[in-house]
Amino acid sequence: MTAVVRQKLTLGAVQTGRRQAPSRVLIYGPEGVGKTRFASEADGVLLLDFEEGSNEYDVARLGARKLAEVEDILSALLMDEHDFKVLAIDTVDRLETLVHDAVCEREGKTSIEGFGYGKGFQIALDEWRRLLARLDELRVRRGIGILLLGHAAIRKFQNPQGDDFDRYQLRLHEKAGGLVKEWCDVVGFAQFEVVTKKDDRGAKAKGVATGDRYLYTQRDAAYDAKSRYPIPQELPFSWTEFAKAMRAARAQKEAAK
After folding, report:
1. pLDDT in 10s for each residue of the chain, 257 residues
2. In sequence order, which residues have a C-beta less than 8 Å from that of residue 241 and are 6 or more positions away?
3. How many Å is the maximal CA-CA distance in the chain?
4. Where are the alpha helices (DSSP H) in the chain?
5. How buried is 238 (Cβ within 10 angstroms: 0-12 exposed, 13-18 middle, 19+ buried)?
6. Which helix (H) or strand (E) covers residue 43, if one does?
7. What is the three-class DSSP state of 51?
8. What gap in Å lies between CA 87 and CA 144, rounded to an integer?
9. Between vectors from CA 120 to CA 119 and to CA 123, what angle results, nearest 5°?
């Protein structure tokens, strides 16, 4: 067998300047807030629809029941001729189920918790890293933006500076959620606008929904969010408004060169 000689990495490989590649975006929020509709409005989008929630939208879609089928779709997007500009994954929590199923099938386990001491979740984390690397390949080689959609869950936050409190968090295992959020350029929390009102007797305040929906892009005590771009902290929850803010942010960065 011929030995493979590794090419030594030198400082000659150093690159300078900004790298131009489509963004990695995660949008999460409660059920019914309009995440699938948001994705369906993106120009040139292919929706990887695990939950069959896109039937009412005029959008290109594919489904998948196994992780291997997801990998087939990513390979096709990388190698085949097409005009897609955005890959939307609906949802990452359903994708996590496929990751866990694949790990269990490969390792001969019936449950991701059957490995003991969190080992199954650690193995799943390796699968997540591989998936994210494939998505990055799509971005860099084919110029395809990545839009991840996810559900929110209310969980107890262990506050090292005071009392613990409830907050919205991405409905993924803690380690997988942390990896995905770190990987993304934008993490947006979508929510219905709710105002509190008291009656004339000063009774306990009640939340009243206005029907408006907003996207939040900076971290708050109630939720995780972030942006590596100078976009507003609060936006109307629509793809049109989000895309406009992203274009303005990119133009601002270009002007600052």
Report:
1. 556 566 776 766 665 555 568 999 999 999 999 999 999 999 999 999 998 889 999 999 999 999 999 999 999 999 999 999 999 999 999 999 999 999 999 999 999 988 888 899 999 999 999 999 999 999 999 999 999 999 999 988 877 877 777 999 999 999 999 999 999 999 999 999 866 666 666 566 665 566 789 999 999 999 999 999 999 999 999 999 999 999 999 888 777 76
2. 215, 235
3. 86
4. 35-40, 67-79, 92-107, 119-142, 174-183, 239-255
5. middle
6. none
7. coil
8. 7
9. 90
> 142: how many CB neighbours lie within 10 A of its CB?
16
The DSSP output letter for 228 is S
Please tell me whether residue 185 adopts helix, strand or coil conformation.
coil
Instruction: Write down all domains in the chain, each with its CATH number in brackets.
Output: 21-255 (3.40.50.300)
**Do the Cβ atoms of 35 and 195 come closer than 8 Å?**
no
CB 133 within 8 A of CB 11: no
Cβ neighbours for 100, distance < 8 A, ≥ 6 positions apart: 112, 120, 124
DSSP labels for 201-224?
T----EEEEEEEEEEE-S-BTTB-
Helix (H) or strand (E) holding 85: none
Its pTM stands at 0.87
Distance CA 152, CA 200 (A): 34
